Amino acid sequence: MDNLTATKKLFHAIVVIGMAASLGCSSGTTAADASTDGPESDGTVADAGKDTSADVMADVNHMDASDAGDGFSGWMGC
Amino acid sequence: MHDAEIDALARDERLTLAAVWQKRGGLELQVAGGFAAIASELLEHGAVQPVMALVGQAVRDEVHHAEISVELAARYRGDDVVWPAPAPVHIPKLAPATGALRATLHMIAMCCINETVACAILEAAFAQAKSPLVRAGIQSILSDEIDHARAGWAHLASPFVDAETKRALPQWLKRLLAGKLDVLLQDESPLPGEAFPHHGMLARETFREVVHAALDDVVLPGFARAGIDTEPARAWATAGSS
After folding, report:
1. Interface contact flag, A77 B125, Cβ < 8 Å
2. Which residue has the higher pLDDT, B36 or A8?
3. Percent over 70 (pLDDT), chain B
4. Any residues with CB less than 8 A from the CB of A36 and at least 6 apart, and which?
5. How many CB atoms sit inside 10 A of residue B214's CB?
6. What value of ipTM does the predicted structure carry?
7. Angstrom distance (rounded) from CA B123 to CA B145
8. Highest mean pLDDT: which range of A27-31, A40-44, B177-181, B215-219
9. What is the reported pLDDT for A27?
10. pLDDT of A32-65, one tens digit each?
11. How many other CB atoms are there within 10 angstroms of residue B189's CB atom?
C-alpha cells in the first residue's frame, strides 16, 4: 500500500471513528449553563461567542502565525 | 535485543540515528506537556467523557513514547538509557482567543493537525522500516497517536463546539496549519537520518508528500465533515505550503 492510499484509509480510522465517539454524548450541564452565565461567565462556551466578534477576527487574520508561535512543540516524524 | 539492521551499521551511523531518537524522546515529553495543558483546559471548559478520557490517557501515552524513544537511542548507541533533561513547554497563546474557544483551538492544533498528520508520517515510516526494534517502536507509538487524533475529531463533533464557534474557525484553521507546518514544508534541508530508510527515517521529499496527502485526504475533509468552511485552509494548502 503506498503512502497516498494509506492516508485515505486514515480518514475513516481517525475522523469517522473519532467523530462517532461523540455521538450520543450529552454535554451535561456545563454548556447549557454557559449560555445563561452572561458576561461574567468564567471560561465557558459562552466565552467562545465573545471571541468571534468582527474585531477579534480581524486581529486573527492579521497576526503572523510564525511570529505568534501558534504550533505545539513535538515530533512529527522528523 | 537482537536487531540485525542496527547491528549492521557502522558506529558513526548508529550515533546519528541515536541522536535522532534521543531528540524525539525530549519532543515526546513536550507533547505530554501540551496534552496536560489541554486536559486542564477541557476540565475547565468542558468535553464529553470519551474526549476527556482520551486526552487524559494521552499524557501518559506520550511519556511512554519518550521511554520508547530513549530506549531506542540507547540501543543505537550501545549504552545506557538517558532520560531527557527538563525543558520549557510551549503552549500556544493563540491571542486573541480565550476560554472555550482557545481550548477548542488547542484541540484542533494538537489532535486534528499534529497527531493526525503524525499518523500518516508514522505509517510511512513504518512501511519502509526493516529494523524490528524500530518497527515495534513506531507501531506502538502509532497505535496511540490514532487515539490522540480521534480525540480532536470527537471534540469537534461534540456539543462543546457550537455553531458559533464553528463559524469562527475557518480563519483560525489557516493560522493553525501555518503555525505548525509552514516551516516543515518549506525547509529544503535533508531530514536527520534520511539516509537510513530501513530504520524508518523519511526523506524530505517523502515527508512533504505524506503531509500534503494527509492534509488533502484526512485533515481538510475532516474539517469539512465537521461543518467548518475549509476554503481559507485549502488556499493555504495549495499556495502557501507548496
Report:
1. yes
2. B36
3. 99
4. none
5. 28
6. 0.90
7. 11
8. B215-219
9. 55
10. 332 223 223 232 222 222 233 333 334 444 433 3
11. 7
**Distance between CA atoms of B218 and B232, rounded to whole angstroms?**
16
Residue B106: is its pLDDT beyond 50? yes
Contact A30 B34 (CB under 8 A): no
Q: How many beta-carbon pairs under 8 angstroms link A with B? A: 245
Residue B199 DSSP class: G
What does the block give as the cell for A65? Answer: 502565525
Instruction: Locate the chain A residue with the closest alpha carbon to B113.
Output: A71
Number of domains comprising chain B = 1
More confident residue, A30 or B137: B137
* Cβ–Cβ under 8 Å, residues B109 and A70: yes
CB contact under 8 A, A31 and B213: no
Q: Which amino acid is at B115?
A: E
| A11 contacts chain B (CB < 8 A) | yes
Greatest Cα pair distance, chain B, in angstroms, is 58
Measured between CB atoms, does A39 come within 8 Å of chain B? Answer: no
CB contact under 8 Å between B96 and A56, yes or no, is yes
Q: Name the residue range of residue B125's domain.
A: 4-240
Owner of C-alpha cell 512501511: B127
B35 → chain A, closest CA residue? A72
Give the pLDDT of residue A32: 30
CATH number for the domain spanning B122: value is 1.20.1260.10
Which burial class, exposed, middle or buried, applies to B203 when counting CB atoms under 10 A from its CB (0-12, 13-18, 19+)?
A: middle
CB A38 within 8 A of CB B79: no
